[in-house]
Amino acid sequence: LESSDVTPSMKIAALRTLSYTLKTLGEVPLEFKELFDSTIVAAVSHSSQLVRIEAALALRVLAEVDPTCVGGLISYVVTTLSASRDNVSFEKGKQSEKIELDSLNGQTTVLAALVSISPKLPLGYPARVIILV
């Protein structure tokens, strides 16, 4: 997924396959947990909106399968959202503006996906997460 010669369609297919595999297994193998986190989180800021949406859905499945990661994911997203919001400049024509807006859009999509699974979380959200949001 992190290779430069992979097209957005290939990334979407890989993320869907990963989501399906996680849902089918019902757990995240410990040796792959960090790899999944970093790979999916990197896709959240992709230039293609469809890749960002699929990455958010994959993180949602990851959170459903492993509810212990919800607190960390939401903390990460809120921190990144705050940083992205502060970095967005509204000067027209800047290429960096599009990258920053893509990242901001990806983070908000992830936050929405994680909030949508709240009824499925056995213990709800950690109290410290609610304070952040």
TrEMBL record:
Highest taxon of source: Eukaryota
A Gene Ontology biological process term: carbohydrate metabolic process
InterPro entries: ARM-type_fold (IPR016024), SWEETIE (IPR044218)
Regions that span the bilayer: none
Protein name: PROTEIN SWEETIE
The organism of origin for this protein: Salix viminalis
